[in-house]
Amino acid sequence: MVPTETIAEWHGFYGAVAGAGATLVGLVFVAISIHVARSPADTRTRRLAVMSAVNLSHPMAAGLIMLMPVTARVQGVVLALLALNTLGATITISAGEARQPEGQNRQMVLYRYFLPLAASVVLLVGAVGIALGHSWGLAAVPLFVLVMFAIGLDNTWDLLLGDFKKRSFVDL
Fold it and tell me: How far apart are alpha carbons 156 and 162 in whole angstroms?
């Protein structure tokens, strides 16, 4: 059984995650409004905007789930549903990107889509662990949050700059 005290020790972290996530999601909407004014019909821009929103809102949701005053089993089940939703959204968005005739370079695709997929799988495994009463599952949530926030911030930065189509890690 996952000790309630262990989860309670992380309440400060999850409160900060929820607050930061809400602020960062607001940043995504600012970036969207700036970029859409430049090129409203660009489907790649819309996909990047949605991916940024997913990358920032889902960790916020994970933080809120961990703050819910329910049993660890319920938290695990709800986290598993969130992980499945993140997986579905990322697969849908990356499939649209794969159909682009002039796709992004391979490094950016791996960074933008594979890492969120991997983080979602980690969250799903951790959520199942939490639901089954294993305290090792709790380590998955901060890892998911940190990876998704890092990628979401980078995607939002690219959205603000409007130069995300040609960027590669060599340019960094």
Answer: 10
Q: Which domain holds residue 56?
A: 4-171
Query: CB within 8 A of 125, min separation 6: which ones?
Result: 137, 140
The 3-class secondary structure across 106-157, one letter per residue, is HHHHHHHHHHHHHHHHHHHHHHHHHHCCCHHHHHHHHHHHHHHHHHHHHHHH
The larger pLDDT score, comparing residue 150 to residue 101, is at: 150
pTM, two decimal places = 0.84
Of 133, 146, 144, 158, which Cα lies nearest the Cα of 85? 144
For residue 10 the two structure tokens come to 């992380």
C-alpha torsion sign, points 56, 111, 92, 47:
positive
Cα separations (Å) of 102 from 70, 98, 108?
A: 47, 9, 13
Domains identified in the chain, total number: 1
Digit-coded pLDDT (tens) for 67-93:
999 998 999 999 999 999 999 999 998
CA distances from 78 to 71, 75, 98, 143 (A): 11, 5, 30, 17
Contact between 131 and 77 (Cβ < 8 Å): yes
